[in-house]
Predict the structure of Ribonuclease P protein component 3.
Amino acid sequence: MLYSDACVYPYPSGDSSVRRMALEGRYLGYGRLVCMDCETSGEFYGVSLLKGCLICSSGFNDFRKILKKECRGCDIIAAYAGDASFNRSVISSGKVNILKGIERCERRSFDDVSARYAAEKGVAVDIDLSAIIRKSGFLRQKTLTMYGDILKFSRKYGFMLSVSSGARSYPEMKGIREVENICSLFGMTTDEVRQSLTSVERILNPAESVEVISA
């Protein structure tokens, strides 16, 4: 399966063109990039560029309005996490592929119910590397703790994790070995990282998905 960076921000949201990010992705070992807020899709330098829609909403009704208005024709739909009720509603709706920004939320915002829904609906919870790299001190530790909790839920219930660089310029993109090193900070194994890097591929081709639950 192809490895994917589940969220990059090419120009105009970021500083680098989609072509430059695709070229960097090829050097780093990726076969797909999910490009947020970008109208360009296709393939450059052997790297598939997917159109992503990232929804930031004030509630579930607002989520549905934005989804209908802004996400038509997108390959991957992601939504920022919120409180426990919102997360359950968004995940169980079957309208979202990736739940992002869980590190911004309270620890109780993602629970056993959300985890079961995510496993049933094939929704991935995103590990945003930029949330670790750009923070320090207490905020970084809070992020690592939250990601560690999500990892435990994933091991218990079998839902997918995705991994994204959150890069806004090509130097911010991360190679596979660097991703493994960063994710080891909250307990991910090499096999778990590489499995997570294939989550976008499994979202696009659910028939090929294989559920793996570690004890």
User: Anything to note?
Assistant: The radius of gyration is 16 Å. The mean pLDDT is 94.
